[in-house]
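User: Can you predict the 3D structure of Anti-lipopolysaccharide factor? Sequence below.
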Amino acid sequence: MAMMLMVSFLPASDAQGWETLALAVAQKAISLWRNDEVEFMGHNCNISVSPYIKRFQLYYRGRMSCPGWTHIRGEGDTRSKSGVAGKTTQDFVNKAFASGLISQQDAQKWLQS
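Assistant: Sure. Here are the predicted structure tokens for Anti-lipopolysaccharide factor:
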């Protein structure tokens, strides 16, 4: 709403430039979020990544869950957008091993497939 008010007070050429800039900013912001479905050890799992601000710096929070298989949830926080999915998956696997959901033999078989 505030953006619409600002655009209405700008000259036509400035308003058009602002709209282009606002669209670019929105597209960049949307790319910070990620929601994917992946296959993990024969099960459909979801990985989500969302940004957040901590001490004036951009961080990413990841979550991994496999509904229909387990209630375990992997979680990870990092400043790296590309690294958060790996950290989150590692947390999920560690929790799955600890609970007995995945055995070392299961993991080795899956890695070799």
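Confidence is low (pLDDT under 50) at residues 1-10. Residues 12-30 form the longest helix (19 residues).
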